[in-house]
Design goal:
- Strands 1-6-5-2 form a four-stranded parallel β-sheet, with helices on both faces.
- The chain is 41% helix and 12% strand.
- The protein is globular and about 50 Å long.
- Helix 1 packs parallel to helix 3, helix 3 packs antiparallel against helix 7 and helix 7 crosses helix 9.
Length: 288
């Protein structure tokens, strides 16, 4: 089963499992969200599989959830909410009315976006944000693979059969990159590409370019800023280093969180100005 192949790359074989059982007994893990001591995925079967798990995408999604149970207790993992229809056909925000079909939201009608569509794997709730903060600010880079697996499932669901020429992580300014030590968007891409390669999914062949989209100006963090402040803060901070690499190409811009969309929309604007045919956006989380 596909789920077994996913688990294979997150759960050790039996000698490693025995070691982890011993380590769990001596130094039991604490949930990254609630700090409660729990049994890791190496010493239990993991969370229950979700309905319709026979499909490939659902198996991948469930497998990624299972990998997360090595870092978080099952209660917190089960609290994570996937983005689902109905949603805006452009920005991907979920609608509260669960009976309607997908349609363009009011914000995308009054303020058209530069990207064609944006999609996310998960709703940006308190539990998931706690995990993302540990990933970005506490150096828990091991989370890149399970979180990347969730993003891969979203990509397979929304871009099935569509061509993507280049994958571009939203860049960090050099000062922030030096202080953090990594670009979280880049690690998320590598996380899902590792799973895709292991499962022989063709998306693993899409090239990642980190030298094309550049962040030429340092800005204050977008967190806590109002929408108008976010737009002003991010305006003109990106540039394209090699326009010939994006000219006529279908691009996928990747970031960790979509809040107002100001950052990815500015990325799309400069990429289209440089000749890109199309820009889409994929994020791990989406504010709702």
């Amino acid at each position: 089963m596909l789920l077994d192949r996913v688990a294979k790359f997150g759960i050790p074989n039996w000698p490693g499992s025995l070691l982890n059982i011993f380590l769990d007994a001596v130094l039991p893990p604490k949930c990254l969200v609630c700090s409660r001591i729990f049994k890791s995925a190496t010493t239990r079967r993991g969370i229950e599989r979700r309905p319709n798990a026979a499909t490939e995408i659902t198996d991948l999604f469930s497998g990624s959830y299972r990998l997360l149970t090595s870092f978080c207790c099952s209660d917190c993992v089960n609290a994570f909410a996937a983005i689902s229809a109905p949603m805006c056909t452009c920005c991907g925000i979920m609608f509260k009315n669960r009976l309607d079909l997908n349609y363009l939201c009011g914000d995308c009608i009054t303020q058209p976006k530069k990207f064609r569509m944006a999609r996310a794997a998960m709703a940006c709730d308190q539990q998931l944000m706690a995990v993302i903060h540990r990933f970005k600010y506490a150096g828990k880079t091991q989370l890149a693979r399970p979180l990347g697996g969730l993003m891969l499932s979203a990509f397979m669901r929304h871009w099935e059969g569509e061509k993507v020429d280049l994958v571009l992580p939203v860049p960090l300014h050099s000062q922030k990159f030096r202080s953090r030590g990594f670009n979280q968007s880049y690690l998320l891409i590598h996380g899902w590409k590792a799973i895709a390669k292991a499962m022989h999914i063709a998306f693993s062949n899409n090239p990642i370019h980190t030298d094309v989209l550049m962040r030429s100006k340092a800005t204050v963090p977008q967190t806590g800023l109002a929408r108008r402040q976010r737009l002003k803060n991010i305006k003109g901070v990106f540039s394209v280093r090699f326009p010939e690499k994006v000219y006529g190409k279908k691009l996928l811009v990747v970031d960790d969180v979509y809040t107002t969309g100001a950052t990815v929309n500015e990325c799309a604007r400069i990429l289209l100005k440089s000749g890109a045919e199309r820009v889409d956006v994929l994020t791990l989380a989406r504010a709702i």
